[in-house]
User: Which sequence fits this backbone?
């Protein structure tokens, strides 16, 4: 009975820790399958690290981060596509005779109708070409990597996520100024921080996890899946040690749906 009770407790503990491979499904994870940004959800207002100009000692609340522009194929945005199509339409508009006394108004009207028809056809063709529905696996991965960098990169999150509070030991240390991290202005997108790398690994793990159940004999991808899981586990353990309790950690865990099983205990791919 005691052994049976221990087995039941072990199963309950493992169930509470969650799936070590997939974690919990979130809107952001589901959006990785199509590379389309999820619909913005109302979130709790976060606090910015940048103080108000009036009182530098008080942190000011940060506005809700603006929704990223909708990404299309070839890293275009809807705004860029619309501007390019409007510019093309302007360049190809038929010329109007400046001398209105001799102008052929019927020919001009016919040319304008033909131009409008060709412009609509060109817009539809270009829109289909850059649609995310036409992405192959490699293009979808590139688009997701860019979205992950924008979502978790510290060049963006440093503006509205609170860093981890220093411990009492760090505050009382004679070298407190050296041990407490300072805000550093970044040049360009942040592609190397732990949360960005964890997000990219999670996207790759999701692709392999979807492929593996129907291809059990694919030993090569099974090995790749195991390597990615252990690499993510190592980064999560490092980040838990350095950032647990900070806004970065909470934001990453909630957005990627990561559970304790993804960084605690043994991860086995059956």
Assistant:
């Amino acid at each position: 009975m005691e052994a049976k009770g221990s087995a039941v407790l072990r199963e309950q503990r493992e169930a509470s820790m969650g799936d070590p491979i997939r974690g919990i499904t979130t809107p952001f994870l589901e959006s990785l399958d199509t590379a389309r940004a999820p619909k913005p959800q109302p979130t709790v207002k976060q606090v910015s690290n940048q103080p108000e100009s009036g009182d530098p000692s008080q942190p000011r609340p940060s506005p809700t981060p603006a929704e990223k522009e909708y990404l299309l194929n070839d890293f275009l945005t809807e705004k860029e596509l619309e501007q390019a199509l409007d510019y093309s339409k302007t360049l190809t508009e038929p010329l109007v005779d400046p001398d209105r006394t001799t102008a052929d108004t019927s020919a001009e009207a016919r040319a304008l109708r033909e131009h409008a028809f060709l412009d609509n056809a060109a817009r539809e063709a270009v829109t289909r070409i850059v649609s995310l529905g036409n992405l192959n696996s490699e293009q979808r991965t590139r688009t997701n990597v860019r979205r992950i960098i924008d979502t978790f990169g510290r060049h963006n999150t440093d503006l509205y996520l609170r860093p981890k509070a220093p411990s009492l030991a760090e505050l009382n240390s004679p070298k407190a100024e050296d041990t407490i991290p300072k805000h550093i202005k970044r040049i360009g997108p942040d592609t190397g921080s732990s949360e960005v790398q964890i997000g990219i690994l999670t996207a790759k793990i999701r692709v392999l996890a979807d492929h593996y159940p129907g291809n059990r004999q694919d030993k090569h991808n099974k090995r790749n899946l195991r390597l990615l899981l252990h690499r993510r586990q190592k980064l999560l353990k490092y980040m838990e040690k350095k950032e647990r309790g900070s806004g970065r950690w909470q934001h990453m865990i909630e957005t990627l749906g990561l559970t304790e099983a993804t960084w605690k205990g043994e991860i086995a791919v059956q």
